[in-house]
Each structure stands twice: as C-alpha cells, then as structure tokens.
C-alpha cells in the first residue's frame, strides 16, 4: 500500500533547471520546456545561462525574451546569467552560426535579468530533487563543483556536447560546447561517479534532429497565436542558411531540443555506459571527447552515452507540446 506522501511524490511533476546559451537551438528547447511547464508535465524552476553562442548577458536576455514570447515572465520562470567566461581559455562566440545576437535575424528586446545564478540553483535544490539539463558549455556546473558542491545535488544531469568517434562541428574532432570550455567539460566528467546519473547527448545522435521549413510550419501552426510564432521564421531562416553554407542542406540541426527530450524521458532512446574525458590542454585536439566503454578506465562507468533516439516521434512530441502554449 502506498502512503499519501509517496503517492503525492509520484504525482509531482519533475523539477527542472536548464543551463543554456541561447542560441537558436536553445531557443527551441526553451519553447519545448515552456510547453511542458504549461502542460504540467514539469516544473521549470529556472534558466541559467553561459557564454558560448554569444555573451552571457546576451544569452540571459535571449532566454528571458523567448520565455516572455511564450507567455512566461521572469516572475514565473526566473532567468539568471552565469559565469561570463570559460574557466581557463579565452571566450569565443559564434555569430556566423547563430547571428549577431544569437537569435538569427531576430533581436531580443528588454533588459538582461539581474538574478544570481547560484542563488537560483540553491533555491531550486532546497525544494527537492532537480533534473539539470546543460545545452551550452559546462562552465556553470564546473564552477559549482569547484566551489565544493557535488553531483549528488542533482537527481540527474544531462549534457549536450561532444562527438564520440564522430566528426566534430568546430574542429575535425571537437564539438562546439566542449571546444568553447574544454576544461569545464573535462572537470564535469571527471567528477562524475557511478552512483549519480549523468547522460551525454553527443553530435552522433543530435545531428539527426533536423527541422526545416516544413517542420517549422507545423510548429508555427501548433503555436497558434503565441507571440514567438511570428518571429520563428526570422530566427530559423538564419540557421537554415548557415547549415546550407556548410553542406548540411536548407535545414537545421536542433541539438538542444532533442537533449531536453532525452533528459526528461520524453522519447525512446538507447545509451551505453562509459567513462569520459575531454581534451583540454592540447590546442590541436582541444575539446575532443574520449569515451571509454564499460570499465576500461579501471572502474565502473560513470556516464550514459546516447547512441540512438526516435527523432520522428520527438518532432511529433514537440508540436504537441508547443500547442499547450496557445
């Protein structure tokens, strides 16, 4: 027989923090999480940002604006800018991929939020179990760990990043998030322990999550009168043009959206156990992911590495969830 407290816990929506660097694919991830929040499937406790696709102040402004365009003010879903620069290397951003301010041909309006990211995390954790999703560089989590906190603070950690025995999108072997702050990524995965769930969503799988003009029309139809729908064509057009310029076609890889779905068990997927290291000190191989399956590092594996996901059902789930914002 289940106690009343246990039953209430089972019915409680998952409590979520996202740490991101919007960024076009991050923006779509935020739309999805806002839809899940509106639907009552999750409680989106807050958004913290890192520098990567653009500066930390700009990513925080972009996140705030996207959520407002989805119907949620900072009072409903707080946003806070995180650490301003990578742990040890100079910050590099990517206007050629995401546009001058990170949202393609669109520009966020308003003022960057003034909250403190550590306080946001602490408030969230004080209320119970929290799932942390990281779709930008790992700078904030690595800083959190350096300051004496532990992986055990979070119920789960899911990271978008890396390329495992697969071509990188920044160098021949490195993915962007890990290349921007390789020391942070390496410290995070070195700190992982077998007892705590951390999942890596690498390019190997996330590149399969493609949204082109046809899919965008379905998304806009699902959003209806939600204000973000009117701006999505200008946000996505820049991303489509970039992907066409690098030979992918007139479509876009939406890494961060799929990562959120994996983190919250919203689609079918499979993953294998491994331990990870990220090359941080060699300029030639900076950001390269080294994945050791099973017990090759001499101990139990500490990470689950995504190896496949049902991207067809993921897109369908995205449209259905976006409709809850209308």
Automatic annotation (TrEMBL):
The keyword Plastid does not apply. The keyword Hydrolase applies. InterPro entries: Inosine/uridine_hydrolase_dom (IPR001910), IUNH (IPR023186), Ribo_hydro-like (IPR036452). Residues 16-313 form the Inosine/uridine-preferring nucleoside hydrolase domain. GO terms for molecular function: purine nucleosidase activity. It is an enzyme of class 3 (hydrolase). Keywords: Glycosidase, Hydrolase. Its EC number is 3.2.2.1. This is Purine nucleosidase.
